[in-house]
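Hi everyone,

Forwarding the result from last night's run.
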Amino acid sequence: MLLRQLEYLVALARARHFAKAAQACYVSQPTLSEGIRKLEDELGIPLVQRGRRFDGLTPEGERVVLWAQRMLADRDAMQGEIEALRAGLTGRLRIGTVPTASTAVALLTQPFCAANPLATVQVFADLQAEDIVGRLRTYELDAAVTYQSTVGDHAFKFVPLYQERYVLLTRRPDPDTGPAEVSWAQAARHPLCLLHPEMQGRQVLDTVFDAVGVTVTPRVETDSIASLFAQVRAGQWASVVPHTWLHVFGVPAGMRAVPLVDPVRTERIGLVLPAREPVSVIGQALMDVAATAGLARTLERLPD
């Protein structure tokens, strides 16, 4: 069995198309098809359902793909560690994040790059929680920053980073005589702009609103935290945003950010890596940075 044959199979599973998989592997389609046929012959099982076009993987093929992804990830991790021993850490760190936590990623990537000047970073900043789980399982991500509640049932390594809490973002009244804090029930009375309901960051909010016995029906929904700030600035809307975004934007001119209480709700956010031993050298380097970055303290500070 050749690792190249496993690469062909993984590429086909990802592309769901022979020609596109061959293009991704920089080989001709007949070369890719022949490599997969040789793999089937060696394993003694069919891996691909073949018709006039790609019809999917067989049940056996689906299982072999999982093993192949793991084996290729281990190959890459071994090569990375050998290269790090020889010349320092190189390669690309692929890190994903849910939108609500994307501000925290910058506080990891900057010290990571400073400590590893030969490495590069690719950030996927707008992933859904289920996308992160899927990409970690298939080793398409080296790490992710997300809610602990979304990965607790999966065999991943979790490193706590900070507790996300929430503020009500509104236009600043003139004169500014608003309260120092506001309850979730009171927040529900505002004309709200919130994240899309399928996003984990929105589901957290819906859980709290349900717990205090109120139903919210936002007039505007978006998939971007930055868009929430823009909608509030535009005029009549209010929004509920994670406090961590104030570290980037501060409290914009003309707005107020009021802590939400009754209850004070927090969600644990952490660094998630595939559960394998040894940890990949690039994953370990990121964990080392996370251990000394002090994200929770830094995210409490507002910009000058």
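The first helix runs from residue 3 to 15.

Cheers,
N.
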